[in-house]
Design a protein that fits this description.
This protein has about 260 residues and is an alpha+beta fold. The chain has 7 helices and 13 strands.
């Protein structure tokens, strides 16, 4: 079903409806005894020290995860946002790992996917006359099973006008990394074709201060826990040049981040 969705997305791209769309899927894990959220968090924290580990409870449900992607952080007039798009697996040896990283850096497809996120972040953060800075080239963010192209976008807001972190987050979210580009066209297509209730998956999660500062991350590598049931979510960006098998494999690797913490308990 996911492969078919990727083919449909590629068809829409070739028709000129949008440049990119992020197609998500989910899987459900069921066991007899309830999950212990504190144990899940401990396992995620131990396995993903580079990530933003989170949990939010509502009623009998808990939403947990370990995301590598910061959405936005505001500290006074200083703002930072992460562009995280373009993905490759980790190698089994240092040489193989380096080869994957080099291929990721040199891939025109991955470069284009990453550049679209950087452009949107720059445009959103400069709306109030802010000074925006980005490095000349992305770096590699290496995680347990995947490595990504990563660019830290930094902005300095004008002293006379400092929108809150929540206002800024509303401008940058959803980025092309979680929805697509152009955003409106990609989201309209997803509403008709994704056949998935995302819930809090790919939303913003973090903290906000009364003065307008805050730090928000993108809720990825996550699971929704209810008793002994866990629903996990993952998505992959489809662009011209994508293949169904490659995008399916990317979602498998992303699902493992939360799955490993759940099956080891």
């Amino acid at each position: 079903a996911y492969r078919v969705g990727v083919l449909e997305a590629l068809g829409a791209i070739h028709e000129g409806k949008f440049e990119k769309v992020v197609l998500a899927r989910s899987c459900t894990l069921v066991r007899e005894r309830p999950f212990d959220v504190s144990q899940v968090l401990a396992a995620l924290r131990a396995a993903h020290p580079q990530c933003f580990v989170y949990a939010v409870g509502r009623g009998d449900a808990s939403f947990v995860g370990a995301t590598p992607e910061g959405l936005l952080r505001r500290d006074g007039v200083h703002v930072h946002a992460d562009a995280l798009a373009g993905t490759a697996p980790r190698g089994r040896t240092p040489d193989e790992d380096a080869q994957y990283a080099l291929a990721l850096r040199e891939s025109k497809k991955e470069q284009a996917e990453h550049a679209s996120v950087v452009r949107q972040l720059r445009a959103a953060l400069s709306a109030d006359g802010a000074t925006v800075h980005t490095p000349e080239a992305p770096t590699i963010l290496a995680l347990d099973a995947l490595q990504h192209l990563h660019t830290r976008v930094a902005a300095r807001l004008p002293e006379r006008q400092t929108p809150t972190a929540l206002t800024l987050a509303g401008r940058v979210h959803p980025t092309p990394a979680v929805a697509g580009a152009p955003s409106d066209a990609a989201r309209a297509w997803l509403r008709e074709h994704e056949q998935l209730a995302r819930g809090w998956y790919a939303g913003g999660i973090g903290w906000l201060a009364p003065g307008g500062d805050g730090s928000l991350a993108v809720a990825l590598r996550c699971a929704l826990l209810r008793g002994g049931e866990a629903r996990l979510y993952a998505g992959a960006g489809v662009v011209d040049g994508s293949t169904p098998d490659a995008e399916l494999e990317e979602t498998r690797l992303k699902l493992r981040a939360a799955l490993a913490a759940l099956v080891e308990l």
